[in-house]
Amino acid sequence: MAEFFSKLGPDIAVHTYEHVYLTVISLTLAVIIAVPLGVLLAKSRRKKLSSVVMGAANLVQTIPSLALLALMVAVFLLINRLYGGPKWHETGGLLPTIGTLPAVVALVLYALLPILRNTVTGIRQVDPAVVEVARGMGMTRRQMLTRVELPLSLPFIMSGIRISTVWTIGIATLCGLVGAGGLGDLIMQGLRSNQLDYLLAGTVPAALLALLFDGLMALVERWLTPEGMRAARVN
Amino acid sequence: MIVFERVCKTYPGGADAVRDLSLEVEDGEILVLLGTSGSGKTTAMKMINRLVEPTSGRITVDGRDVREHDPVSLRRKIGYAVQHVGLFPHMSVAENVAVVPGLLQWPEEKIRSRIVEMLQMVGLDSGEFSARYPHQLSGGQNQRVGVARALAADPPIALMDEPFGALDPVTRESLQDAFLQLQKLIKKTIVFVTHDVFEAVKLGDRIALLDAGRLQQLGTPVKLAQNPENEFTRRFMDQLRKATLISEVLGDGASGN
Q1: Which of A48, A66, A133, B225 has the largest count of CB atoms under 10 Å?
Q2: Assembly ipTM
């Protein structure tokens, strides 16, 4: 055991850090994009727009995660070929085709749907009569949103973020394949060389991370849920 | 004073909610808009604070057309209570009462003392109730907080849509009594919507009886009961007579109304 840690401890630390880094960056971006977009879609009268965006998010979701990563690399290559100038191979092109960037883009795309869907559901389930009362009391549209609609849909939004968190940690294990690092590196090294200790050094921390983040998000969810709604949901 | 001048509201799709409504609400009176569901009473009320815009005609408050007002600031000056919806579930009693004063950016200190004052006014102990949430209150307590919330910013006008609906008869009566007591003190101009003829007679200084968007008769409860101008009014107000008959049959013990 001590030998295991002295040999692989630093590796585990570095790759866990990379893994957390990828996850946190991707989730933050996904929340920044999906929550406002979800609010817009939920309030939009143009039903078609909403179904097109949701359809697109759904479509991304049906692509296997490994394929989506590969697709990102392909897309970045294509962009470089089209816009990177004649000697993009030597100059490196516009965008790095491997590493953190394609990985984060793929993870963000993957994390969008649960947050988007739950935000739309959350905003739409708010009783329109309650919103009308808020309006009747003299709230502006922004105040209605921030003081009534968002607090009342927060449990939905948070559970969407929680689902995305667990997914992202899982899919981030594949990001090693595009050179973005993370615990996937250790797992693949273990798989290639049939070494148990590398496999354990990759898989166990990944599983623990998923559990840890899920637990953390559960706490945040509890903490953010308005007090008046906690007991109300039990009733 | 609130004045309706030949106000019509037609919803897209063709339904006439309010037809050619003209009436005046005097300062300091409780005017009850009475009618069955679909009579247009709620639509008429919502046009005062511009939750609904009239198709034609105009409404003035203190001589000024409501359409000249910015709707947001207009609404902050008019108390609003819709009790079947109730309070904001995610806000405590104190936070609910503080909504409009907060929107008007009253100083913190003033809001805090106002919460205490308002809760006391509707018969609730602020120490006991301030921190509670709506789901922790009984139906009657919820309605009391709703009235406190509507009047918190001391608006000269309050609009109340069936504020004592969905309550058991005993609680409702005690709330109606408390409400009348309160009104004696504060003398607001109140537009009160109900479908309950007993409530209308008990609370209204005057009643405007509506049917299918048209004003049937406007007057004091006694006038409507004794001198109905048309068949609809006669039949509607007859509910009172029937109840009186029943209480006579049952004897003195049941003459609650």
Answers
A1: A133
A2: 0.86
